[in-house]
Each structure stands twice: as C-alpha cells, then as structure tokens.
Request: fold
Amino acid sequence: MPILHFSFSKQTKMSTPTPLLLFFTALFTIISFAGAQSPLFLTLVNNCPYTIYPAIQPNAGSPVLEKGGFPLNTLTHRSFPVPNHHWSGRIWARTGCSHHNGYFHCATGDCDRRIECNGLGGATPATLAQLTFHHGHNDFSSYGVSLVDGFNIPMTVTPHEGKGNCPVVGCRANILATCPEKLQMRYPGGHGPVVACKSGCEAFGTDELCCRNHYNSPQTCRGSSYSEFFKHACPATFTYAHDNPSLMHECSSPREVKVIFCH
Reply:
C-alpha cells in the first residue's frame, strides 16, 4: 500500500477560529464531560489470615460479575468495574474451602461445589453484603450487611468519594466465639470447630422465626432472642427479614464500593 504524505503548501494558511466556533467547541466539551459517567468499581478485600472464596450472586435481571466467584488470598484484593446501569445482588465469603482429587467444597457459603458460582446462591449460614448500584435520580448506590441468614465471617462495606450520608456499615465482631450452642455450626461432621453461627430460622425452622406465612409482614415479623443476639453484636446489620429498612444506606455517585472481609 503506498504511503500517503500530507503537507501544507506555502500558500496554505490555517484560518483563525472564530469566537462562535470556540464557543460551540467549549460547549460540546462541557456537555461531553457532564454526560460521561465515571466508572464505579467494586473492590473485594481479604483481611483474613487465610484464603477465602468470595461469591457474587446477581438478582434477577442483573448480569453475573467476575463469573460469580474466585479465590482471594490473604491480604490481597480484587477490583473490577460494575455495569454502568442498574445492578443489584449479594456478596458473601466462602470459607474452609479445599480441593481434593478434583473435588471442591467449602465449609461455609458453598455454591454447588463450584469455584465460579455463575449466578448460584450459597449455603447458609453466611454473612451477606446486599448491594444495588445506579438507581434513583441521584445515581444512588444502596448497601447494607445482613445476618438474616446467619454469620460466617466479619464483613464491612465502605463507599468512597460519594455524596451524602455514606457511612461504613457491617459486622466486625467475632460472632463465632460467642455463638450460642444451639446456633453453632461445626465442621467437619458437626464435631469440628465452630465455622458459622446459624440464624434462629435455620436452627429451628418455625414460621415465626423464619417470618413465613402469617408472620411474613412488617406487622407480624418480629425480632427474637436469636436475632437479638446478632443485633447486640452488630447493631448496624439486618438480623431478621423485616428489620428496620433504614439499615440500608444510600450513597450518591461513589467512585468505589469496598467490601472488606475480616475487617
């Protein structure tokens, strides 16, 4: 292919931009920057002294992120952009995971014995981060931490560079050390160390504790002595199905949302 050379002859003069042209150029630049939405990054941080396997499950209509799960070594993090449109879902950590003869399994939070959950939910009990990105008129990111399905690992959620009220929320307490005997989940075989703390619903399965049937409304679903155990340890978390909605926080236009395990 021949190489084309372009040059201005001595007779060619570049015209000076008119004030009107400069005005429209500046206006176009301003509109372009105003319309461009800065990417929002989700960062998962492992502060635990062991490897965990974070899992990400989208709600219906939202895409799977990062294949739904991956290993995260101790004192490392993984950061990735979220879709620039509405996305919602939940994040938890799988612990006590092992490979053996091609067999993968986690003591807590397991998702059908897969490393990449690809949209599957996890086994309870597990501490959950509940997240919704890009909603509302102010590009809100909503976030909260739930112990409704029990507890397996401390977790906090922190938005960065957002506007409005954007507190750090979560559960920093080592609930495994204080979990009542009736709620303890031990592994392996129910005789090993305590690896998770069950909810009252999972431990006893009653409609009242699970907020099912007649109890499935804000008027009839109430906290129990078991949910109060979790609430006392971690007041800023949801501990039963119809807990206070104000525990879900909204932060406008954060640049990053950080989920930290063992924080």
Q: What stands out?
A: DSSP finds four helices and 13 strands in the chain. Residues 1-15, 25-36 have pLDDT under 50 and may be disordered. The helical segments are 19-35, 200-204, 207-210, 225-233.
